[in-house]
Design goal:
This protein is an alpha+beta fold and 166 residues long. It is built from seven helices and six strands, in the order H-E-E-H-H-H-E-H-E-H-E-E-H. Strands 1-2-4-3-5-6 form a six-stranded mixed beta sheet, with helices on one face. A hairpin with a 2-residue loop joins strand 1 (25-29) and strand 2 (32-39). The chain is globular and about 45 Å long.
Length: 166
Amino acid sequence: MHRFTVLFVSVLSWISCSAPRASSHRVSVHGEDMLVGAIQQEELFRTFEVFREQYEAYMPDDSVVHMIAAVRRDIRVEAFLGTWCGESRVHLSHFLKVMARAGNSRISYSLHGLDRTKKDPEGLTVTFHITRVPTLVFLEGGRELGRITEYPEARMEDDVYTIIKD
């Protein structure tokens, strides 16, 4: 009976780990809740209120936001974060506020929640060589333009504009 139980649990674990996941899932590791996988902003704000608080508190420089809004390149941002990470809570929230204020439909982004080992179910951390969070990877036509790792060098909006300006 014991061998059957171990085999059954092993098969279930293998199936759940190998199945592709299109959305995040809340996991608890050693009593700590986190989101791992693809995350929607609404889910992030609902599950971890601190992200919403940081978002609402941040006031980006409108002159730089207007320059971001005027960029005419098609940019994709892959944003990697840890819901458990203080720097992600602050700097990713600032990025989200800048993007919302800019309202540039030519700039899109995806949020990817990582566990404490900085892994995700889709394996994107390997593809993008992610070792620290948050990391924002800016792409144009699949080519990396630049990245912001852990924290911006200046303000978030300044670093974003420096990377994506025409």
